[in-house]
Amino acid sequence: MKILIYDINYAPELTGVGKYTGEMGAWLKQKGHTVQVITAMPYYPEWDVHERYKGRMWFTEIIDGVTVNRCPLYVPEKATALKRIVHEFSFILSSLYYWLPLFFTKQYDVVICVAPPFHVGFLPVLYSLFRNVPLWMHLQDLQIDVAKELDMLKNKKFLYFLFRIEKFILKRCMSVSTISEGMIRKTADKKIIQSSCKLFPNWVDEQHVKPLPRTQSLRAELGLYDTDKVILYSGSLGEKQGLELIIKAAKSFSDNKQVKFLICGSGSYKLHLEIMAQQYGLTNVLFHSLQPYEKLPAILATADIHLVLQKKSVSDLVLPSKLISILSAGGCALVSAVPGTNLHDIIHRHQMGILIDPESVDALYHGIKLALESDLSTYKLNARRYAELHLSKEVILGKFEHDLLQLQNSSSKPVRFPLAESLPHANTPLA
């Protein structure tokens, strides 16, 4: 197949959506497909364009055999709601440099668009309709719903308008997928997609990310002792997770010199967490940057307990991708999740972690205390077994490739929904 991928994030980003889209593109190329990508300069999770890409405009590079077309964009130092909107639209406008020639000069067998941001789907929709090419929209999270629940966007009319734009885009996609059963339910409840929403979960290379002995961990490199009890949070540091709870919980363990909190990551919330730790005078909280992918098994082996924290309001709207690597490494995760959500159900059903109430310092403190006093071997064995059975990179991407081929074979049918249906006005009520 000739495949076009459109995503604001792509390799070499180490975490978040870009990591998975980059691995997907490389895997499809390895299987013999022609893959082209339109994406931005890498900037996540630091919210700063990576050093070797700074000052560059539009250019093309080859990554793992994939042709990657890079676009400049605005990257704010502090990602407020308004600045995020400008940031995302700057990418869409910038990417017209590559999109406009494609409308007239090149045909693909399928277009894959990855969201968030949700409105990146607008250009692929136009291309799909103009060239009669099937469009697959993959939702890594439900961005507008998250913004609404976190109260990041307060203007109701503007929110209604965004939901109507989302409807306009999603109903014109021949295939829509997302990463968890809970998000499938949320997407299906919108009643706007052409067919049933597919499950396309994030994955892990279980041959690379595997349990390692403590002697192969990064404890010595990071100045930690074998006797230390290490509580690790690794990944992007953003507002959705409620990470200030880690600093508050660390304060409760400040008298225990063996308990160390290790935060490895980057993101818009990192400075806030560092300031909090300084204000509390904490010496048991250590901050480090994200480790390269080659060191991922070693950093995961450093921890006794892994933290997977989410706010109540985004339950089933996002699924923390860091959990996948933790499970594959045979780690025990302390997971904040609301009963009845997909995340809570999976952890409880397979007994591969300790569940606590979200947004509660007391729950986090007692969860850590329980984990430190417990035998975690059963959780760790169950975690690794689940990763091997359900999260294998080859299995998940193999099924995705099969579904893509089926989508290509069905693409001879005309596009079902015409473009002529007008976009909604911000005052238009939701159906």
UniProtKB/TrEMBL annotation:
| Annotated Glycosyltransferase subfamily 4-like N-terminal domain residues | 15-203
Q: Output the superkingdom of the source species.
A: Bacteria
Keyword Transmembrane in the entry? The reply is no
InterPro entries under this entry?
Glyco_trans_1, Glyco_trans_4-like_N
Please name the Gene3D superfamilies in this protein's record. Glycogen Phosphorylase B
Q: Which residues form the Glycosyl transferase family domain?
A: 217-378
Any GO MF annotation of the entry: glycosyltransferase activity
Q: Which UniProt keywords apply?
A: Transferase
Q: Which PANTHER family match?
A: COLANIC ACID BIOSYNTHESIS GLYCOSYL TRANSFERASE WCAI-RELATED, GLYCOSYLTRANSFERASE
Q: Please report the name of this protein according to its UniProt entry.
A: WcaI family glycosyltransferase
**Organism lineage:** Bacteria, Pseudomonadati, Bacteroidota, Cytophagia, Cytophagales
